[in-house]
Amino acid sequence: MGHGGDDRSGAGAPRVVIIGGGFGGLFAARALRRSPVSVTLIDRAQHHLFQPLLYQCATGILSEGQISSPLREVLARHRNVECVMAEVTGLDAERRVVRTRRPLGDELDIGYDYLIVAAGVRQSYFGHDEFAALAPGMKTIADALTIRRRVFGAFEMAETAADAAERQRWLTFALVGAGPTGVELAGQIRELATRTLRREFRNIRPEMARVLLFDGGAAPLASFGERLSGIAARTLDGLGVELHMSTVVTDIDRDGLEARAKDGSTTRHRAGVVLWTAGVEAPPVAAAVAAATGAATDRCGRIAVGDDLTIAGHPEIFVVGDLLSLHKLPGMAEVAMQSGHHAGRQIGRAVAGQPAAAPFRYRDLGSAAYISRGKAVLSAGPLRLSGFAGWVAWLFIHIAFLTGYRNRVGAILTWWVAFTRDDRRERAFTTAQVGIMDDVYDRPPPAGGAGPAKR
Ligand SMILES: Cc1cc2nc3c(=O)[nH]c(=O)nc-3n(C[C@H](O)[C@H](O)[C@H](O)COP(=O)(O)OP(=O)(O)OC[C@H]3O[C@@H](n4cnc5c(N)ncnc54)[C@H](O)[C@@H]3O)c2cc1C
């Protein structure tokens, strides 16, 4: 690999740079396996992450290692692929150079003949970026581990709380956004409170934990259609999740949040933990790509592409996965896999001097959401499954798609133990780690009450 946009060593072969090793980037790299090209996959993380199981990592069932695989390991047999750990910061589309920042902050330019932008999306706070520290979203392993510490940390704080009001506040979990991730987290927190932690504390009753789920829409899991959405609402209600639908969260602070209902009334809810899964937006690298190429972007900053997945006027630049804006395709793993594969094949054909493949067509394989043990909903074509049947289907899909044989076996064994014994092994943290939770724990002593709390 060369600095300053130089040719990569051993080159001569066309250079393909892929930004992002998520589903889109990984499937693009795999599709180029037999092509005479030299691929550089750049990611700021050293791993490929299976985002659909992040919530199980966040709630102590699976470890971070079980839902991720080192990119180098995944692509070890792809002899034409090189992995670079760096953050892409800019693009010079004229010189065909990608600007990156290496882990210690120095810059590295990488030249390309073809570029595949597969950088995904990040959590959006709808202009309230100050909410991010108070209410983490769930997009990365770091997010999941922060959530895990806050959720289990809240029970620890409740156990030694000075008074009943403070105890109840720590035992209240507020979740913003009732899409699949919010629903999955809500179900898991009630489950761990009523099952896993039930016998472990002496001063609190974990099962008294309240889980409040807020959404501006009328029902949870609205994208699954009215029937499954209704089933999800009833299942959550049965689990003890308190649904606050048609309610918009207007403010979040260290004490909880404020929400406005449809009738305009505003209510304050005290909560020890607030989590945010309400929206997504394109990361800064998308704006850099759009500025360098003149590409149009949509409301969320996703990059407009044609049916061949390239940016207008730049047949050498492809956008795939969550970041592409085309026919309102949803941000789903299958879209990323199929578009990544398509972009890789297109480049392979171009390099081989073959005519371009047919335009990209997404084959919708459906979607599934886990609500609680033994209960999930699945929507695929005309098929609608819920309850136990939905859960079995969910299980098979996630095992089939989890990256890496070891992760699959590990997840099956862990789920077996977790489901039969309510066991969650992944919850080790110490008081030394509360530094990571500064915004929650590092609060000034209550007014007039200096000194340690007494019980
Ligand atoms: C919690 C959660 C649950 C989900 N559940 C489901 C589900 O059940 N079913 C489903 O179909 N989909 C689900 N999804 C959506 C699915 O995971 C995404 O659609 C898919 O991961 C998109 O793939 P991608 O390759 O476009 O982006 P990503 O998987 O997000 O990958 C983007 C990669 O780019 C890297 N990157 C970003 N910016 C830069 C930069 N500037 N420089 C270098 N690297 C960069 C990131 O580190 C990352 O590795 C879920 C998503 C989340 C967050």
Give a short synopsis of this structure.
By secondary structure, the chain is of the alpha/beta class. The protein is built from twelve helices and 25 strands. Residues 1-10 and 435-455 have low confidence and may be disordered.
Explained architecture:
This protein has helices at residues 23-31, 54-58, 71-74, 141-159, 164-170, 180-196, 226-239, 284-293, 333-351, 387-401, 405-421, 438-441, and strands spanning 15-19, 38-43, 47-49, 68-70, 81-85, 87-92, 97-101, 107-111, 114-117, 122-123, 172-176, 210-214, 241-244, 247-253, 256-261, 266-270, 273-276, 280-281, 303-304, 310-311, 314-319, 324-325, 367-372, 375-380, 383-385. The protein has 12 helices and 25 strands. It has a 6-stranded mixed sheet with strand order 5-2-1-9-21-20, covered by helices on one side. The model is unreliable at 1-10 and 435-455 (pLDDT under 50). 31% of the residues lie in helices and 24% in strands. The chain is globular and about 70 Å long. It starts with 14 loop residues before the first strand and ends in a 14-residue tail after the last helix. The structure holds flavin-adenine dinucleotide. Residues 19-25, 42-45, 51-52, 54-55, 87-88, 118-120, 138-139, 180-181, 283, 285, 321-323, 331-334, 336, 367 line the site of flavin-adenine dinucleotide.
Count of DSSP-assigned helices: 12
Beta-sheet strand percentage? Answer: 15-25%
Radius of gyration: 23 Å
Strand order of the largest sheet: 5-2-1-9-21-20
Helical content stands at 25-40%
Ligand inventory: flavin-adenine dinucleotide
- What would you call the shape? globular
> What's the β-strand tally?
25
User: pLDDT below 50 for ≥5 consecutive residues: which ranges?
Assistant: 1-10, 435-455
Largest sheet: 6 strands, mixed
Between the first and last Cα atoms, what is the distance in angstroms? 62 Å
